[in-house]
Design the sequence.
């Protein structure tokens, strides 16, 4: 299992992306699937950093871990910020996506892109930690 | 790759050339360019995106900001963007509000 620990700061998005792209390459994930996985993880990591840590005036880390077998690549992000389940957050509704931009409410789009961009998304709260799990199936 | 946004204004068309990776850490750079462009009251904004490798929802939020700042009568063109970036706009319905074209020439004609 490969792991990466980074500070809960926006400058960590780049090393997080590098980690995801490297793990995707190891298992031969294609360009589109790699982009969608990287986007999903970028979105959730951004939420953890901005709303889990910075808005709470809290400091902390993000721990990424990657595991793979012949059928799938699974990447998990763990953090010790306030509990937050993206699946339980207010979901973007279909009619909102059809509204013109000047009438849009900001927010929710990142979680929407994350959840529907990967083959499977799971959230777990384990003791005092959040764990967001992203799964991509391998052809 | 480091994100850059550079602006040029010709005949009321503001061209912002985007390159690199647009995420929550780099989006303020893009937003500052929109702010600067708004002061010139352009009739059209063209985002030249052939060198843009990645865009998260932070980029979408800047597009919403641009529409709200400039008004709906100012068209925003996205020119020469990569397929996966266009996919993000389509999935989120932004292709209804941003005019997606294949080339920069198509956006300024």
Sequence:
């Amino acid at each position: 299992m490969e792991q990466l620990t980074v500070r809960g700061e926006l400058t960590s998005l780049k090393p997080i992306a590098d980690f995801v792209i490297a793990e995707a390459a190891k298992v031969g994930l294609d360009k589109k699937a790699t982009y969608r996985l990287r986007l999903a993880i970028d979105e959730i990591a951004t939420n953890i950093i901005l709303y889990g840590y910075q808005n709470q005036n809290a400091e902390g880390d993000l721990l990424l871990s990657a595991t793979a077998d012949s059928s799938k690549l699974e990447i998990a992000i763990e953090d010790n910020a306030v509990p937050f389940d993206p699946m339980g957050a207010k979901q973007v509704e279909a009619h909102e996506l059809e509204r013109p931009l000047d009438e849009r409410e900001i927010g929710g789009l990142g979680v929407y892109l994350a959840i529907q961009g990967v083959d499977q998304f799971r959230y777990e709260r384990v003791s005092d930690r959040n764990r967001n799990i992203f799964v991509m199936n391998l052809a | 790759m480091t994100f850059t946004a550079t602006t040029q204004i010709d005949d009321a068309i503001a061209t912002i050339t985007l390159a690199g990776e647009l995420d929550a850490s780099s989006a303020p750079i893009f937003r500052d360019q929109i702010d600067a462009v708004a002061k010139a009251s352009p009739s059209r904004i063209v985002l030249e995106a052939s060198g843009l490798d990645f865009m998260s929802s932070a980029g979408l939020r800047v597009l919403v900001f641009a529409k709200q700042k400039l008004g709906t009568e100012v068209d925003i063109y996205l020119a020469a963007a990569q397929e996966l970036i266009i996919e993000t706009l389509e999935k989120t319905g932004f292709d209804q509000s941003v005019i997606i074209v294949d080339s920069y020439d198509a956006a300024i004609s």
User: Anything to note?
Assistant: Strands of chain A lie at 2-7, 61-68, 72-79, 120-126, 129-137. The interface with chain B takes residues 10-11, 13-14, 17, 31-32, 35-36, 38-39, 42-43, 46, 49-50, 97-102, 104, 106, 109-110, 112-113, 116 of chain A (CB under 8 Å). The mean pLDDT of chain A is 93. The longest helix of chain A spans residues 31-53.
